[in-house]
Specification:
The protein has 141 residues and is an alpha/beta fold. The protein has two domains: 57 residues, Roll (2,3-Dihydroxybiphenyl 1,2-Dioxygenase, domain 1); 84 residues, 2,3-Dihydroxybiphenyl 1,2-Dioxygenase, domain 1 (Roll). The chain contains five helices and eight strands; from the N terminus they run E-H-E-E-E-E-H-E-E-E-H-H-H. Strands 1-4-3-2 form a four-stranded mixed beta sheet, covered by helices on one side. Strand 2 and strand 3 form a beta hairpin. The longest helix has 12 residues. It is elongated, with a radius of gyration of 16 Å. The termini are far apart.
Length: 141
């Protein structure tokens, strides 16, 4: 079922390539339909629309997708898959894929760690030095 609010991603002419790429990374994902202008797809049950709008806009960090990960294996999978073939690492769990879309690959327990006043500063200091999150280092902070 399509939710009443969903993202539309503006690509130059690579909406189908992006949809195919993302569907290989996320479980329970599929391309729903494809026309010259629009590609509708689901990533782990979340509906997306990709628009082949031609060169006009570029993605930037003002919009990103957060991927909550249950363990280090998931973090590693999403991180390395998203930066493959020309993506870029950034700091604090942020990365860009080869299409320029920004992602935040974060451990699900980060919110809990940050809500503990006794640990929040140490956890923040630890992850400010990281590119890809290291759950063990955060838990030991």
């Amino acid at each position: 079922m399509i939710k009443p609010i969903y993202p539309c991603l503006w690509f130059d002419d690579q909406a189908r390539a992006a949809a195919d790429f993302y569907c290989t990374i996320f479980p329970n994902s599929r391309v729903l339909n494809d026309s010259d202008m629009v590609v509708n797809f689901e990533l782990n049950g979340q509906f997306f629309m990709g628009l082949n709008g031609r060169p006009k806009f570029d993605f930037n960090e003002a919009i990103s997708f957060v991927v909550l990960c249950k363990d280090q294996k998931e973090i590693d999978h999403y991180w390395y898959s998203l930066i493959a073939d020309g993506g870029q690492e950034s700091m604090c769990g942020w990365c860009k894929d080869k299409f320029g879309m920004s992602w935040q690959v974060v451990p699900a327990q980060l919110g809990e760690l940050m809500s503990d006043p006794a640990r929040a500063t140490r956890v923040t200091q630890a992850f400010m030095k990281m590119h890809k999150f290291d759950i063990e280092a955060l838990l030991n902070a």
